[in-house]
Amino acid sequence: MNLLSAKNLSHSFDYELFSDISLDLNKGESVAIIGISGSGKSTLLHILSTLLKPDSGEVSLFGEDISGMNKKRLSRIKRDELGLVFQSHYLFKGFSSLENLEIAAILSKQDIDENLLKRLKIDKVIHQKVTELSGGQQQRVSIARVLTKQPRILFVDEPTGNLDKVTANEVMDIFFEYIDRNEAGMVMVTHDEEIAHRCNNIYKLIDKKLVKVS
Ligand SMILES: Nc1ncnc2c1ncn2[C@@H]1O[C@H](COP(=O)(O)OP(=O)(O)OP(=O)(O)O)[C@@H](O)[C@H]1O
Ligand SMILES: [Mg+2]
């Protein structure tokens, strides 16, 4: 089943970033997007995840064009079905890690998975304030928060940027297992070719186009 379908997307800020980009994501599938810094990868992810309106083209989620959806329906889908793990973490800074997870759990009516916290190696720091954690720990708390919601599509921007190779691979294992178990899908931006190769499809954003690499 198709989770996401983007057709003929174009977008410019000061200059044209990309044009006529199309992309599909099916259940159980992962897509990696690579490309040099500034090529527009994060912008594309923002468009696919409903945060930004493209200049032209359309994005459908779960078979429905989002441009035709009313605000309430779109924000419900965003809250319940989409999991966003972005370059800046969007954690509530004044709260502890646990409180951040509890907010996600309450909003989505799901339980916090203790085992997930152990695997992300944040179970020991869960009572500390977010501001007292390292960048990599904050990143893993934000991953735990997103997975606690149990979204159907994960949008992940440079998930392993702050992590050493071993921890990065462990975090990726968690994402891939999550997709398998929940029949979810993932669109991931990464600079790491090795990690990109773990995805089902790899695309490169180059010369304003999205080119299939493998
Ligand atoms: N909100 C914005 N307003 C104006 N320009 C923007 C905005 N967001 C991004 N840009 C510009 O668009 C270009 C692409 O940015 P984007 O963040 O999508 O690149 P990226 O491929 O994700 O880069 P990186 O690998 O460094 O994260 C950059 O030149 C950036 O300055
Ligand atoms: Mg980026």
TrEMBL record:
It comes from the Bacteria. CDD domains: ABC_MJ0796_LolCDE_FtsE. InterPro entries: AAA+_ATPase (IPR003593), ABC_transporter-like_ATP-bd (IPR003439), ABC_transporter-like_CS (IPR017871), MacB-like_ATP-bd (IPR017911), P-loop_NTPase (IPR027417). GO terms for molecular function: ATP binding; ATP hydrolysis activity. This is ABC transporter ATP-binding protein. It comes from Sulfurimonas crateris. Residues 1-213 form the ABC transporter domain. Keywords: ATP-binding, Nucleotide-binding, Transport. Belongs to the ABC transporter superfamily.
